Amino acid sequence: MKLAYRIVTPALALAAVAAGFFLKLFTFVIGSADDQINNLVSAVSSLFSGVNTTYEYSAFEIVKMLGNGPVNPDATKTFPEVAAPIMSDIIAFAVLFSIMLLIMVAVAVLGALANSRKKRIAVIITCAVGLVVSLACIIVSNNAFTKIINGDVNLTELVSVISTSVLATIATVIVSVTSATLSAGFYTVFGVFILIIIWTIIANFIIKNPIQKSKSYKRKNVKRTVIKP
Prior knowledge:
The chain contains 9 helices and 3 strands; from the N terminus they run αβαβααααααβα. It has helices at 2-22, 35-47, 59-68, 79-82, 87-113, 117-149, 155-162, 166-171, 184-208; strands at 24-31, 54-58, 176-182.
């Protein structure tokens, strides 16, 4: 069981790091309180590429976009200028989420070295710290999402920066962000912290109380040798 723990725990942790980086991290839905406008936007989005009602981004895609510069080079403003009302929240979330992933890497290392109960307890404590940082991420992201939904960030200017579609930019005049949430990438990392804590508790219990097969002893028949006179 000790060997299984030292193999499974790092595998779970490293898989969570990969999921956090490559799976969708944010989901934004645009729409309107008017059903007719919603139907119109849905119809247009099905006919033209670049016009969507749902936008999803992973950490990998965000890093890639930042590395390649603005998607629309003709935009009149840069992303930091458009996102100024939530820039502090973006930076705080980026730092906290990076710490989450680093903690998960630490869990992988500790799990691989956990050949004693004390070291497995250290894995639980590290995961608990990761959960605290995760909750801080949720608070910071919710604060930013509230500002976005309330219109603190100009949607038209934002779309003009991240999209080259003229129709998409025009559509933002009649719609707004109706929903903004953290997505699978974040909650996979969050969930694996909990999973590893539960897995470690179970592993500690099994190691302390190993399951042993009950042995039944049968009396051997003693062969008697008869000595003839």
